[in-house]
Amino acid sequence: DYDRYISIARIPTLRFVVSNTTEAGIVFHAEDRFEEKLNITFPAKLTQFLYARYEEFHGDPEKGLVMLPVELIDDNGIELHKDVLKYIDLWKLPEGFRSWVEDACIFTSTLVDRIVTGWVRDEKERNAIYEELGYVDNLLDTAEPFALWVIESKKDISKEWPMDRALAGKEGMNVIFTDNQKPYKQRKVRILNGAHTSFVLASYLKGNDFVNQSMKDPIIRDFMMHTIHDEVIPTLTLPKQDLEDFANAVVDRFNNPFIQHSLLAISLNSVSKWRARCLPSLLGYVDKYHRLPEHLTFSIAALMAFYSSDEKGEGCLKGHRGSDVYDIKDDAAVLDFFASECRKDTRTFVHDYLSREDFHGQDLTKIDGLEDRVCEYLDAIRRDGMQKTLETYFG
């Protein structure tokens, strides 16, 4: 509903814009058009939104907006800002609008860390909570107790966005305002998110459906622990004890019996997630030890096995786990690649995937031994299935 969307830009009291479009969301697409109501990218839609506000209030500097992106890419606010400026140039929008975006608007870079699994599905549990609350809450969801939001901004927004003081009678939410969120982000993305992305696809193909269920699976739990402690932590620069403490807290969070975190929910956009969450650790490990990290390398083969389907659904591919059918959801270019390539011989399939610089930011076939090792793992998965392959290499 484009017209309704644009009408929100004209609300005088609007101040904050929060986005969560996944790692694949903050991108520039040169075919997007200013007059188009169904542009592909979020930055294009945001540029249209900001321009409508600029026109409505005649460039009033008091009507600028604060962008709070939470996508898990490095410098998410900086990248979002860059893409908006690219669209201003592409669409030849007025110089006054560019100045308003630069001077009146604030693009923060943020990091969020909390597992939120969504709607409380059990009706009995919902009704018990409603009774305790005294009203029906149609936005009720399930989340872990842990929560962290780190907000990096050149201008101090803590007084008008006082989330750290938001809970009456308590210390407030765990929100940190800083001029450098990188140490927090690196720790979280590489350990927590990297652990997720490295094991969930293999775990799902092995027969598990949830994270806490995976943690009760000895092979998957062991796989994850070796990934974190042997392959990820050695590549990070923060004090080792801090990293070990955070990793132990992550394991406790994964074991939370009340959080039913679906592996399929985590699988969304896994190609861009693997690039952001796992590739830096793999490259750091190779650079430091001059050999491949076996668990992170296997995660590539697991991803390729999970994505292997040429059966198209509505905006997805249809994968098969025994008699179960699951949705494979990613960018159209990724889905098109797997649909056309996955039936080829393993060597061709792996070479073509690893060499896709648009997927990985570089040609991964140039990493010594990686192509051969991924072929070995994927051949085993295709031949023996995920369960037996994991037992063979990591049991």
Structure description:
This protein has 395 residues and is mostly helical. 51% of the residues lie in helices and 10% in strands. The strands form 4 sheets. The protein has a 3-stranded parallel β-sheet with strand order 1-2-3. β1, α2 and β2 (66-69) form a beta-alpha-beta unit. α6 packs antiparallel against α8 (218-232) and α6 (182-206) crosses α11. The model has no long low-confidence stretch (mean pLDDT 94).
SSE layout and pairings?
Layout: H1 2-9, E1 16-19, H2 42-56, E2 66-69, H3 76-90, H4 95-104, E3 106-107, E4 109-113, E5 116-119, H5 123-133, E6 141-143, E7 148-152, E8 175-178, H6 182-206, H7 211-215, H8 218-232, H9 240-254, H10 263-266, H11 270-277, H12 279-289, H13 294-306, E9 317-321, E10 324-328, H14 332-341, H15 346-354, H16 357-360, H17 370-384, H18 386-394
Parallel strand pairs: 1-2, 2-3, 7-8
Antiparallel strand pairs: 4-7, 5-6, 9-10
Helix pairs in contact: 1-2, 2-3, 6-8, 6-9, 6-11, 6-13, 13-17, 15-17, 17-18
Which features characterize this protein?
10 strands; mainly alpha; three-stranded parallel β-sheet; three-stranded mixed β-sheet; single chain; 395 residues; 18 helices
Q: Structural class from helices and strands?
A: mainly alpha
Order of helices and strands: HEHEHHEEEHEEEHHHHHHHHEEHHHHH
Q: How confident overall, as mean pLDDT? A: 94
Radius of gyration: 22 Å
Principal-axes shape call: globular
Q: So how many helices? A: 18
Oligomer: single chain
Read across the widest sheet, the strand sequence of neighbours is 1-2-3
Largest sheet: 3 strands, parallel
Determine the N-to-C terminus distance.
52 Å
Q: Residue ranges: pLDDT <50 for 5 or more in a row? A: none
Q: How many strand segments? A: 10
Helical fraction equals: 40-55%
Work out the strand percent: 5-15%
